[in-house]
Queue: 2 jobs
Job 1
Amino acid sequence: MNAVQSLAHFIPESILIVTGFLILVLDLFSKPKRWLGWLALAGTTGALAYAAATIPGNTLPLFYGYFTIDPFSVFFRITALVIITVTILMALAHKGTPPKQEGELYALLAFIGTGLILMAASTNLLMIFISIEFVSLTSYILAGFEKHEGASNEASLKYLLFGSVASATMLYGMSLLFGLTGSVELNGIRDALAGCGNTGPLLLIAMALLFVGLSFKISAAPFHMWAPDVYTGAPTPIAGFLTVGPKAMGFAILLRVLFIALPALQKEWSSLFAVLSALTMTVGNIAAVSQTNIKRLLAYSSIAQAGYILMGIAAANAIGLEGILFYIAAYALTNLGAFTIVIVVVNQSKSEEISSFAGLAKRSPFIAASLAVFFVSLAGIPPLAGYFGKVLVFAGVIEQKLVALAVIAAVNSAIAAFYYFKVVKEMYLTEPADSVPAERPFPAVLATAIAFLAIAAIGIFPAPLLHWASRSLIF
Amino acid sequence: MSTLSLIIFLPVLGMIGVLLTPKTEVQAIRRIATIVSAVVCALCTFLLFRFTASQPGMQFVEKIAWIPQINVFYHLGVDGISVPMIFITGLLSLLACVASYGIKERVKEYFALYLLLETGMLGTFCALDLFLFYVFWEVVLVPMYFLIGIWGGPRKEYAAIKFFLYTLAGSIFMLLGILALYFASTPHTFDITVLSVNHAFALGFQKLVFLALFLGFAIKVPIWPFHTWLPDAHVEAPTPISVLLAGILLKMGTYGFFRISYPILPDAARWFGIYMAILAVIGIVYGGFVSLAQTDFKKMIAYSSVSHMGFVLLGLAVFNYSGFDGALLQMFNHGTITGGLFLLVGVLYDRTHTRDLSSFGGLGARIPVYAGMLTVFSLASLGLPGLSGFVGEFLTLLGSFVTYRWAAAVSCLGVVLAACYLLWMIQRVLLGPLNIQWKSIAEINRRELFTLIPLLVIIVFVGIFPQVILNLFGPTTHALVNALGGISQ
């Protein structure tokens, strides 16, 4: 499909791009810039509504086949739009954004939303690289957005340095892969590999290098080192976004690369990902136990969550893959909800220590109950969305008889429950230092309500989302 | 809505009602919780009488597709094993709810969580789909954490998280076992009734799954050596929660054996029988000796639970009619008796604010009604003929005598030990010179009596007419023994 024809199927992304530029222009003329956030929200909501209303039934190769709108990318397109919408709500609720730069923040969020969708829709190594870089560069800026905060600067710089190395490594892997197969198209790579049946060492090296870059994106151990510092230093709404947005789309790319380009090597990579999965969840969970900073705790928790999702890749069967999509959707909503509550609490206490949650249940019962529900969902306790995602990836692993991985994951789940309930304990069992109820900015209430209702509804009636996830798997 | 769904979800409705009531309206909140529990209790009693014991298979069945992609059904039903459990859950939930009037702090949250807990417990005993069973099983966990952690004693935080993590760790392995069963069955199913009929699993697979499920159930029972969470949880939990913990939650573990492990994994069950008997005997004797050494009233009762639940496990391990009947009856009896004992400890603690056995003495003369109650419940617990405790333990020992004679012999020591620690407790609390500190102690009041009388009636009735309740579940347990290839006596 040529560029002009493609635009008709590129409307949600176009809405985001137009919204972004519009905000940049209006930013010049408006003094209180808060309303630009609402404008951005209107843009993303519009894009979401359009995307949800016009789900194409067939596969559309857009822009001469560089992007593909298929059921898989539609799933991630809608996920990305939900993520970006909630992130904008979080940004609106967050205190601490430099007032002068507020407009740019919303513009960047609109742009990065486009980048996320492009990541999930890329079916070509070049476009994969470019879309990853687009999202990464924007993320570096967003992480350092509070430019007067030392931690924010540090986060940005660290992210940039680690990210550049990872990108370079990945690019090298891609170039090797291109050299070996003569194609940058994922389909072309698959055909070339199927034709020659060659799984020589160079191919394995190329694959490994490619995975380094993608593991960085999804913060899988041992490429997770950047994550805790970046998530802690970045402004809270951005930290929340980074734990879900790039990660979810990183998984989307990983799935595409593995199942479209490299099915010939499935034996090799599935055992590799079994090891990575066990390592990632263990590293994340054990490090999380001793954290006293809530953002750092959530950072390590999000590393561990990536480990659980990787179980689905290690299993590489239908139920495991459905589990990955389900898990990503559930995890994204839950984590964004949790970060929203962190914003609400930190706005008031100015402290990110877990102790600032003391007695929250007495001060603000709704806020506390929401966070408790989010943590229960992250811990994988029924009947919430997180539980069902976890059951599916466990099921995938059990079906493949990867008993060792299943046992490691089970032990990890118990460890995870410990630190999630450390915060719950602080909220419910510890007496509050004062009785001032937390302020509840409207955008935060809205974001919390969306996340809360969604994970409760998905948990009690998982069938529709599961149905959608299984229809979205095109490989 | 059908009976079982109504029973399970009425408490959730009650919870919503409680949440919608302003937190200052303490009376209204209590009233809502009590009315809901009372209606549930009435429905459970109705179920008990409407249940046809002679009819094989599940009754009051409800089956609706829940997650069709992976064959998960909202599938409920009851048989002779679950009906007594549901009845006692309904009853103890009502009594413990009335006993909860002593809770003064954060009343709204308390009753909301309490009702959620009730839903979880009832659902566990009604579920016939493994997936659904697991969901209800876990739903019990979170409210329990809060109920111990917020309203508990001085070391409540430690006790709550210990209970929570222990049980959670066990139940995640149970989940792995459940998933393994799902994938091993053709067509894939979580349906307990289907899996129970389809005995085609290889022994090696059965053993593995049995162990995974065992971890979940054994921690809940708790079977020695997985019992260490129990004394902490019991001592720190507020009285009504101790009652539910001992009376119902522990039974969820042994119920799991009856409902899932045994029917679905019969070969593994027989293979592990001897080991279960060994663990049971250790639990019985160990629990008895440790109870004897306790100076804390509540801790003593807690450890006595380890001993008494050992009898249930022993009955389960012997694969004959008497053993299974005894185990199930012991589950029922332990719920009523130990529930009553925890209530009685609570009555005393509310007045004296101590549970140290050596600080009492001579209370029998001061508060004779209380003394009478405590004596009867203790005698029932130590297995005095004529009261219900005797029948359960006797049947269990009878059953084990057939299969493992040594186990029966050693377990008798548990009965002797029970007599020692319970009578010694009575001596220390009720007899001897009056501790002058308690000379104006108040007699048990009407509300407290109300929570105890129904249990007392059941204990005496079952003690005298055990046949009534044995007939209720006999056909089911006997069918289970036959299906397992056990001994028909």
Job 2
Amino acid sequence: MTAHAALRALLQVALLVVLPPLLPGIVARVKARVAGRQGPPLLQLYFDLARLVRKGEVKSRTAGPVFHLGPVVGAAGALAAGLLVPGPGAPALLSFPGDLFLLTGLLAAGRFATVLAALDTGSAFEGMGAAREVTFASLAEPALFVCLLVLSRATGELSLSGVLGPALPAAWAQWAPALLLCAVALFVLALAENARIPVDDPTTHLELTMIHEVMVLDHSGPDFALVLYGAAVKLYVFGALLARLALGGTGRGILPGAVGLLAGLALFAGAVGLVESSMARLRLVRVPQLLVGAGVLSLFAFVLLVR
Amino acid sequence: MSLYIAALALLTGGAFAALGLSARPKLAVAVATGAAVLACALGLAPSLGVLASGGALDLSLPWNPPLAAFHLRIDPLAAAFLVPLFALGIPASLFGAWYLRPQLGRRGLGAFLCAYDLFLATLALVFAARDAVLLLAAWEAMAITSFLLVSFDHQEAEVRRAGLVYLVASHLGAAFLFALFLLLGREAGSFDLDAIAAVRGGAVAPALAFALALVGFGVKAGLPPLHLWLPEAHPAAPSHVSAVMSGVLVKAGVYGILRVVTLLPPPPVAHGVALLLLGLAGALGGITLALGQRDLKRALACSTIENVGILTAALGTALSARALGSPALAGLAALAALFHVWNHALMKGLAFLSAGAVVHATHTRDLERMGGLWARLPAVGALFLAACAALSALPPFNGFASEWLIFTALLRGAVSAPGAAGLCAALALTALALVSGLAALAFTRLAGVALLGEPRSEEARSAHAPGPAAWGPLLALALACLALGLFPGAALRLLAPAAGQLLDLPPAEVLASAGPAVRLGGALPRGVLAFLALGLALELWRRRQVRRRGQARAETWGCGFTRASPRVQYTASSFSQLLLSTLAPRLLQPRARVTPPRGVFPGPARFEQRVQDPAEERLFGPLFHATARRFRQLRGLQSGKLNLQLLYTLVTLVALVVLLALRSAP
Amino acid sequence: MATFAQTVFILVVMIDFFVLASSRLKAAIAAVAAQGALLALLPLLLAPQELHVLHVLALSLGALLVKGIGIPFLLRWAMREASVSREVEPVVGYVPSLALGGLGVMLAFAFSATLPIPTPEKHPYLVATSLSTVWTGLLLVVSRQKAVSQVLGFLVLENGVFVFGLLLSDFMPWMVEAGVLLDLFAAVFVMGIVIFHIHRTFSSLDTGKLSALRD
């Protein structure tokens, strides 16, 4: 490995590890500005994490070791998935044909552990949230597969780095409508997978209406820090994918690539914030409609490519 | 080959020795188990040898029955199915010895042990038989021995019913197989499979032969709508028997279909598409059925339908891809399907055995009466959790590795195939993604409700942890699941000759189609290992942090509600309710009868829910009732008098002679 | 120009999906109006050179007036009169009907190229869009309970037929279009009367209750 490649890898890992907690900060800031408030500092989540890490934890008497599996596997899965996402101006650290299924598998493993951790507390609310989370995820997963399939078909590549790499601008030139549909569907799925507003409300404190937040009610201290950090990394993974897709791949070289990626991520977080400010949470029974709709949209995009 | 024969002889000898030792049950169990374990270890060697070398072992022995020959051959395809049989046979038999301990004084234990060893022997014979008559004989013997095993607890009416359903299903399936091999054998002039393969089915229409095989073997494989016996028989049988049945016996059906495919001319696209559609229907239907079950083992049986569906869909993809002229894709899909056969045998074996240990400890199969078992049986709980994660196709377990291969095959198809074929691949991929999402729902439900939270009943509260005799064999299975998940390359190299034999491709080409990512040290294992390493690092950090900052214990946060009780926990039924009653098609929705609480001082309320299998309710139930009605009308013919019965025989004979005379007359 | 037409076709199909998934009548009516307005663009985009400009303009304007403005206005009025605002209990739920609609659209787009259509293709998406829209309309008519939703389904179906009519408009310019528009008008008339009558008789717009009228 040359020094240049080592430096690049280091930068990619550093971005993956350090950057994610910034995204929820941008989202919160955009929401506050739209509502005419000052809003919390951009780095609020970093402060929160630092505070949580220094705390002890309170654990339910019912819960056992599986309870800790949720935060740990959730964060590890999201971080490992982050290794598969192409970095600024370069392919991902780990890239091979079919790596998109490893990405979905890692996210699914995190979800599996989080859901079991919620059930381990024996709480009715957390059980409810867990049931909703897996039910909606089972609908979001096919839609996500089709989105990635559309990208593969449009570029003729089988790995995420290939799909979002040099072949992307040509694909945009040829298949703009299909890729646009796919990007819209992917955005909807990003909102759903990250428990954002039309599907779930991360800020509400009415347990009955929540999905993701209600599952982690009992976590505290370092566990809760891992939960928040894992969620931020997941948001980063989706944001980075969407940013690359929307920008038609990022430019050559590390510097323009990094600038492009950061700008794309900021745009993504801003868009999430705007959606959160302008929409209400959907009723629970309407959520499947949204997810199936995203799936149908991306299938339609695929059909446009096959013709 | 001599090792294989020795294994067969050992199993048969062990079987009759156990029967002879019925009076000394402890010794009988030891003899039967020892014979089974030793035979499986002996059998594993030649099977792996065949796969490693890509050759075949052949043996013909003199045998008396007319038209039949004792012709055995272990070719790569047979070996690919023998390996999971022998590999699962060892831990299942060891677990069985522990499981049977409380039953030592029972009558019929000797017969059960005898049937178990014979069951393993007949299964081994089915995979190696190279003569149609021998194959059918072994097939029937396998059905009968497994029927005896299923009906072990025949004091319970439910078990008797399950045994009957299984026996009837087996025999109806076998009837189709007799027709199939009669047709094929008549064309070839011999029942030797070599002769049949040489004429490639002769004048028998391939579609007819394929359809007969699909029905006949499909009953055992649990393809829809012929899957009815699975959710009945698996919970009824002792757990180690369910493990072998679900892990291997069901695959014998898949093996039969594949064997017939190798005897016929290369199948057209339509056959592959038929397999694909059947597989997808089975996968979706099976996992939806699993979501509604309260019975732990029944839910696992439904998940077997799902997994057979997944691998059948992969085989359908392989056959279609070959017919459409893309051998690389076909090779990848066939390899993935055979790999899933191995993986499912291991992970479902693990699931059934650990479920058996759970049932043993709680004396109930009802999910709603379990709960909190992790705290009481941690070892078994961890193993059951591993099985659930593997069955939900999560990294780092083996279920993920084979589903990754299947997905990748379909992705390649969807990206490269033109027009309708690409669309079909995309739709199949979408359906399988839905299946894996639903599987996550089904298995978080099983693991979460059975193991976690507070105990939901007195039985669960007082459950005792079994010793290492119970979980030792399971640990071996779990480690095998993990190893195949981390290093799929080794298994794929072994399976390549079998996939090659199925598709007439050189093994090297098949292996190359899987790509470098799955090899030892390839990118996929590296990604999974990175995930494991990250998880481990975070866990160590978390532990250190908790040690330094301290941990306090308190009640679960009840959102202001202070009188928490185990009864407010989310139940298994409510966990899947959102999906089943709002999203599942109406046919698969559970029927509920609700008496809600009314008024200011509500009286008693009731909620009752039943899960129906549409295949039983809409198809076979009415069909069998109608048939039974017809046959009741024939009852008048049977009077019970001996001379009348003889008269019937005479009349039949005369009629046959007349028929023959008429047909042979010019 | 070709890519613009492509965008219009894709938007038309998007609106099909939206109408299938939406339970609020107001939004659905607005969507169908937008679909009508989009369709009005098509004659302009796809007109062959030899056709008279005035004719094309007239067709386009007519479609805009009828499909984009007139009928939606009528429907909104009917909605207010009958004071229904949402489809309450569709016969086929939203998720299944959306999935079915998606499947139909996929099949239409996958196989429309192989259909034996005697005229030269004006645009590769034309026949597929038309078939998808007809399929969506049929699904709506079959799966909805409220009369207003059914009229909406019928309108979507007519939109599909209109798209198909564009294919034939070179051969029989006036006939087809006049037929389509007339057909539409007649249909809306009839349904309007039906709505009115159901409302008067049953004070509800549930067509399921019409079965009480049988002998």
